[in-house]
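Q: Here's a chain of 127 amino acids. Please give me its 3D structure as tokens.
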Amino acid sequence: MTRFIAICLLPGYVWLGVAGAIAIVTGAAAPGPRYDALLHAIFLGFAVAMIFGHAPIVLLAVLGTPLRFRRAFYVPLVILHCAVALRITGDLVDVLGQWRAWGGLLNVVAIAAFAANAARSIAEARG
């Protein structure tokens, strides 16, 4: 479980750095695709990765039931980072604008898959 947590946190910090680089290079302060890329790097790449990484600790504290680690937890994490990369690439490269839609769809899939994995893990731990 500790390896999973670390693997969640490290790419999250990379996305935070990407957001900083986007802000510095593009000066993305006005609404538009570059600002969208900045927001998605922070709120999906960084924040959701932090949520995935801290969920085992928080759920244990709140529910009193540990999450049983399963390798399936890596699937939503990989989907999340691929989705954020698609989304940001679609924002920053005009001819790849359709990638934004695919990235958005995959973000929903990643979050739903993580929730399903967590629910199954909690059910297994309780049962």
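Q: Can you summarize the key feature?
A: The chain has a mean pLDDT of 93.
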